[in-house]
Structure formats: structure tokens, C-alpha cells
Model the fold of this input.
Amino acid sequence: MLKTTSQNRKGRLLMYYEFRWVCGHVEVYDHAGRFCFSADSEQEAREELSDAA
Done:
């Protein structure tokens, strides 16, 4: 389990996320433990978060 934070381009903290490895893919959960999305890799999940910021 990897816990991370997402920041926007100005460096402001936006939200806390948790990455969980499940059956060969990464599931991303928000600060309240709600499922957000899944990705094939941690890098893909980080890119998805970055694109959403």
C-alpha cells in the first residue's frame, strides 16, 4: 500500500490518495477511502492524477 498526495502546478496540496496493489493492477482511493479509479501501473495512476489536477 502506497500513500501519496497530489499537488497542482503551483505546488498547493490538493488531496491525499492511497494506492493499493490488487491482482496485478493499482487501485486508487481518496482520503476518505473511496475508490477513485484503477490503473495498470503506479506510473499510470500518477499520470491520471496529474492530468486531473
